[in-house]
Amino acid sequence: MKKRIIAAMLTGAMVLSMTACGNSGDAGSTASTGGDTGAAAPEAEAPAADAGQEEAAPAADAAGPVELVVTTTFAGEDSNAQNYKDAVKGWEAETGNTVVDTSATADETFKTRVATDFETGSEPDVLFFFNGADSNSFIEAGKVVSIDEIRAEYPDYASNMNEDLITASLVDDKKYAVPANGYWEAMFVNTEVLEAAGVAMPGADYTMDQFKADCEKIKAAGYAPIAAALGNIPHYWWEFAIFNNQSPANHLEIPESAADEGGQSWVAGMNDIKELYELGYFPENTLSATDDETFAMFTEGKAAFLIDGSWKVGGIVSSCQSDPNDPATLDTAKLDKFDVTYVPGKGSRKATDLVGGLSSGYFITRKAWDDPAKRAAAVSFVEYLTSDEMVPKFAQHGASALKNAPEVDASEFNSLQIKAMNMMAGTTSLTGAVQDLFAGDCRVSTFDGMPEIVTGRVAAEDAVAEGLEAYHNQ
Description:
The protein is an alpha/beta fold. It has 18 helices and ten strands.
């Protein structure tokens, strides 16, 4: 049986670890780049030649300046894009090495690019990427190095991380990616639209029935209730619609077929989205619009609700700045009109049961590891970016795997980040995204095919059956 199950992810520990942050995570925020970031200093003294493995040279003891090719998802409107740029500059200044940055926004095109790079031998030296099914192909091909293998030479590698929170690969149950920051998915709210429609801010016990009643009022007031591009990025509604017909206990189980109990919950989820579409709660152009266009509707006060990830905080903040790249231009009064809350619940899934976890991390590729000139530099780079001092700048209002997360200084956060932390404090569970296990061609019939489903041209059951068949036959 090809059913793959991952344990429900990191509930209490994840919420506790999200207390990390000593700095604002807005797109234009700055990160400390001083020499106390936890990476080994380049001038560290090398051990004696006859030292054993436990006396291995510090990671930063590269023979000379090295150029590393690094690919991450810290790009575009990701709230950590500037933090990443600042951290790279800090590492370069401390080590004398340089980084060729090939980062890009995390989407299906980016994932395809990364997979193609590995297939053609063009992979980077260090990769910050998803550690679910998206990384299966290059792990199966032996193109990345496990943490245990790295520790054989650098025993302190990732030793500052809670081992239980480092995700193991679906391929061989080994750990490859060192996490930096986690994520959550929730519902952002434009409260100005709610006020205009006479709708109260949703709370922790919000249900789908209440949500639909509120959407009806918002629609009657002349606004789009839901900002979503179903023809471009249906991901978040796909995830939560399925989750609303399951529970944290079974959400990460891939059904055997569309006919079994799990498969029927997926079908019900697709039909729930179809119902919202038929009720007119999505933008009129939801099937042809881009995600950027519907996000602009939300930030410009034309739509009320937006389901997205923690990374979207930075994009909302940037939309409230007269200069998106200059946090000093933030209009705090405008930002105060945005909030974040729980995705409406249904059945056994409470609204406070969210999707989230530590789904990404830093991989060191076999190409870099086998290069004597790059091995130490690659280890040094990952250690620098995942140090106790650096991780909090990236974790912000999310989660981390640090053993010792620093205390929160609320003065370092903007109003939306504080609202996010308050929301996370009430979370009852964090469960990983099942779509991370259901990658590639499996998604086509329900992701790319969402317009066909909601318009009734393709039955939800047929679309789900096609996707599951592709999954079990891969």
